[in-house]
Task: inverse folding
């Protein structure tokens, strides 16, 4: 058995070792909020892969090697005489020294690759005999690189412009033990959207989701997270949301608060009944404002 390690001081780093060290960060499109590598199906058995409409380029990484286009690329997708699967994406080829990553169209599912090659599929087209390209079945997975950041508090994300990070960046807030991702529109500065968990919460009339409303099972408990906007007057009980019946308790319960903030003071109360209604109880503080967030756990039925 031979044991090796790299990189080695003053020694050349081969393409293979580069791919293992740098490529370990993952393959995918670097999403700059401008739809890089978007696909347009043409009428002449071709497709056009677009550069970003925001930055004028499109960038991706395969096996640690960067790929970039600064102009739209037209690729041929020929007509077929039998059912054929085409895959459009980036091919890393160690034999191509001047262009190690290239935009290509391959056949097969999966396509046949040569020694050392690696393929990152953007689009899959299933085309039948005599079928026009426009009528063929198109799938658009477009794998993207996802970056991660860590913040101390969920409230800090409200002051952090999501568009400063690549689209899809995931932010982990330690106070709520939850994750958000950069989404929405670049023109509006983007937004931090809480990642979906095991169940969804439906805001009731007069209320809407600000940055998340979801629930999940944690250590045998139902964990509820709410960040809504609306009117939350003092000394008032209002049904603000509804959860799926599968997560409802057998009787009315008060959650044990884990974190709260925004415009919700400590005096805020939340209860859930067997119908799944989430009721807000306004305390004595002044908080008839846009709302805040609360997170707590309770025992399911």
Result:
């Amino acid at each position: 058995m031979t044991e090796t390690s790299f990189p080695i001081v003053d020694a050349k780093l081969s393409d293979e070792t580069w791919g293992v060290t740098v490529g370990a960060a993952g393959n995918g499109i670097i999403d700059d909020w401008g739809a890089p590598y978007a696909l347009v199906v043409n009428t002449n058995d071709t497709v056009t892969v677009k550069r970003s409409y925001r930055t004028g380029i499109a960038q991706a990484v395969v096996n640690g090697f960067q790929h970039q286009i600064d102009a739209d690329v037209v690729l041929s997708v020929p007509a077929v005489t039998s059912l054929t699967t085409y895959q459009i994406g980036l091919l890393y080829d160690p034999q191509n020294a001047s262009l190690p990553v290239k935009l290509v169209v391959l056949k097969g599912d999966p396509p046949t690759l040569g020694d050392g090659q690696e393929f990152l599929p953007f689009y899959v087209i299933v085309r039948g005999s005599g079928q026009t390209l426009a009528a063929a079945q198109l799938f658009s997975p477009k794998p993207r690189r996802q970056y991660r950041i860590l913040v101390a508090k969920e409230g800090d994300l409200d002051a952090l412009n999501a568009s400063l990070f690549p689209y899809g960046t995931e932010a982990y807030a330690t106070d709520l033990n939850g994750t958000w991702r950069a989404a929405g529109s670049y023109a509006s500065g983007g937004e931090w959207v809480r990642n979906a968990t095991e169940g969804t919460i439906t805001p009731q009339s007069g209320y809407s989701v600000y940055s998340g409303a979801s629930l999940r099972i944690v250590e045998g408990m139902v964990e509820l997270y709410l960040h809504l906007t609306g009117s939350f007057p003092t000394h008032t009980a209002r049904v603000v949301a509804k959860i799926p019946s599968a997560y409802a308790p057998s009787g009315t319960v008060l959650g044990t608060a884990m974190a709260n903030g925004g415009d919700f003071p400590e005096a805020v109360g939340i209860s859930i009944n067997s119908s799944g209604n989430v009721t807000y109880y306004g305390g004595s503080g002044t908080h008839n404002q846009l709302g805040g967030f609360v997170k707590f756990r309770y025992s399911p039925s």
The CA atoms of residues 154 and 177 lie 9 Å apart.
